[in-house]
Structures are given as C-alpha cells and as structure tokens.
Amino acid sequence: MKRTIPIIAAVAMAWAASLGLTAEQAKGPETSKGTTGVGAPTFTKDVAPILYKNCVGCHRPGEIAPMSLLSYADARPWAKAIRDEVGEGNMPPWHADPQYLKLRHERRLSDAEKSTLVRWANTGAVEGDPKALPAAPTFTDGWRMGKPDAIFEMQEDYAVPAEGTIEYEWFYLPTNFTEPKHIQQIEVRPGNKAVVHHVLVYYRAKPDKQRTPVLQPNQAQMKTPERRVQGSRPPRGGQELGPRRLIASFAPGIDPQAFPDGTALRLEAGGTIELQMHYTTNGTAGTDRTRIGVIFAKDEPKHEIRASAFFNGTLVLPAGADDVKVDADLGFLQDTIVWGILPHTHLRGKKWEYRLELPDGTSKMILAVPKYDFNWQTYYMFEEPLQVPKGSKLLSSAWYDNSAKNKFNPDSKAQVLWGDQTWEEMQYTGILFSPAASAPPTTAQK
C-alpha cells in the first residue's frame, strides 16, 4: 500500500471534493456575463479588490493554490466554489481562535467582504465595468516576498522516484559572505512543491557568534525512537562546518518569514546553509532543486531573531483512539521576547493550545488552533510580542484523532509513534524569540 501523500495535489483536490463540483459545474448560469439586480456586486468594482488583497498571493500561476483568481476570466468559473468556501470559513485558510492574543497578517475576511463574495456568486457573478477594475498587484516572478537580495540554490537536481519512502536528505549551499549579514526576510522556495514535504534551513559558520542559552526544553520529552535508516545524503557531523543553528523552515502553507521591524537574523561571515529535505513520492517521478532567498535588513537591528523548537517525541497514539492529548513544555532561562509560534503535527493532528505559565504559577491562554489543518502550516506571529519573564514556561498541548472517523488517517488500526513520515506523527513547535536584553556581540573562538 502506498502511504505517501502528494501534498499540493491533496490541497487542489480538497477544493473540488469538498464541494462536489468541477470547474464547469461551478460556473452557474451559462451566460458569461450573468444576470444581476440593481446594486448587486460586480467583479471589477467589488470583488477584485477583495481577491487582490486577500487571495492572489496564493491564487496565481505558479503558487500553491489550484487555480488563479487574478482576472474575471480566471475567477468566474469558480464563483460558486468561492461562495461556499468563504461561507463555510475554509478560505482564506486561517485556523487560530480570534479570542486570544492578536496576530499579525491574519488571513481573515470581514463580514462585509464575505457578504460581497457570496452576493456576487448568487447574483450571476457579473464582470461589471472594465474601467472600474483596480490595478492588479505586482509580484516578483517566483518569489512571494519580493525580489531577493541574494539567492542560494541546491547545486544539483535531486531525483524523486515515483514510489517508495525517502528518508531525510541533506544539502549544503555556501554563502561566501565576507562579513556578517542581517536578514530581514527569508523564503524557502521548493523547485517541485508536489514532492517537498518540508524543509528545515540551518546556518553553520565557524566561528559563530557566542549566544547565551535562553530556552530550556524538557529533555525527557525530547527523546525520539531510534532512527533505523539514513538517507543517501546523511548530515555532516562534528565541527567541520561549525555548530548547526536553525534559521527557517518550510511546509505547505507557511508564508515567507518576514521579521518585525527592528529585528533580524544574524548570519556570520563565511557560513554554509544546510538544508534538511523531506521528500514524499506521489506516483510520478520528478526532480527538485530548492532555493533560499533572503532580503537584508536596511539598518542594524535592535533585537537578533533566533529560531528554535521543542517537542514531545515520546508520544503514543493507540489504534482507533479519537482524542489523544500530548503535552510538551519549554522553560525560559532569562527574560525573553517571543515573536511567534509554529504548531506542527501530521495527518492525525486536530487541534492545538498554548498556555504561558508565569513564575508565580498563574497561566493564560496565548494561542489556540481549534481546527488544525496539515495542508496549511502557519507561523503565528504575535501583533504585540510576548514579554516572557525568566522562570516562565510555555505549555503546548496537541490533540490527535487516530480513529476511522478521521478521513485523512492513513491507518486507524495502527498504534502510532513519533516519526518523520506522514503516516507517523509529531508533536513539534517552532518558536521565534530574542533575549529581552541583548548582550554585545562576541565571537566564539575555536
């Protein structure tokens, strides 16, 4: 039985499958112009501004969405699908509960915007006066964040077979930086999204800046089952390239990482970008050559952004269990600023909650994701960063459905443990943070 998941194809099929519609069926009335009453919304005046603001970052050629919505000709066949997906809250994809801390770049439509899209579809989905159409947003071809200042690319194509299991593979991209660089934005760009499950991006420099430990994961939880298999390109160990430091990640749904004003990643001179690549087969052989694009900060940042993670690798999901809770916690060794959090499970994950426990024992909910969706991984960035005092704990809880009721479950009869592949599971949280008071930079000598 083939147990791998073609992620991008799954996203596209989900639209049609969830609605029971083909593109032709979604057209509604046969006339290309449609019929409308007085005051009904038109594409050019009312709908296009909403789509341009909220949707076409993904719904344009070459991006993750299964169709473009840039023009009337593009959008008209999908009018009923847009109505239903928006009305049911599936689009735009945003899964955080709004009652807790406010988040940056929320993919939400206002009630008025939702009403406009629904009424447009219900009143004939007419085009309107072409002169009323606003200018379409401009994009840098191949990059969502805009034109990169520097691009680093895998030095060879990686061949992905049609079938089988692929263990993690590792690739190395020299930067040739002659001086330290501060990174304001970073984007991971798979060459073939249909076969890339995730990418972890590390930076390795020798020497690297010495950084005082800030976070203290629960080491008892961080144990994982012993890996029995290595990929054909295992990681380079030891200090050949310097210590490994996480700087970015990619999974379907993750936006390019743009750090708040006054913050940036610091990359030392002469370093190497290390890619941990997880590929999945989808029935068709292909190749991938992933790229990393960066935009440099214009000014010296006040805070250095750091990326890390904590997880519970001891999880056990009994066969058939539909509501298994798995916890993990992270301690803070000094006053810390937390900028954002990334929850990650695989196909059995169904919801997440995060609480901040203060040194006096009080706690508060800071983030809840009541409908976690594996196809839309999201780094939730706080509008006002969390000011976390020394001695606090970040408590994460994830819930899983390993029963036959979960239509995405690869095998409800199997007990599931931590593992790399999509039919296994994870309880993993990425975190972006900074020490509250940054010490003057020093260099760790060999």
Keyword list:
globular; 11% helix; Jelly Rolls; 2 domains; five-stranded antiparallel sheet; mainly beta; 446 residues; 23 strands; disordered C terminus; six-stranded mixed sheet
Description:
There is one protein chain. The protein has 446 residues and is mainly beta. It has helices spanning 7-19, 43-54, 72-75, 79-87, 111-122; strands at residues 150-153, 158-160, 169-174, 181-189, 196-204, 215-217, 245-250, 257-258, 263-267, 272-279, 286-288, 291-296, 303-304, 306-311, 316-317, 324-332, 336-344, 349-357, 363-369, 380-388, 393-400, 416-417, 428-435. It folds into 2 domains: 7-132, no CATH class; 150-435, Jelly Rolls. The protein is 11% helix and 30% strand. The strands form 6 sheets. Strands 1, 4, 8, 9, 12 and 13 form a 6-stranded mixed β-sheet that branches. Helix 4 runs antiparallel to helix 5 (111-122).
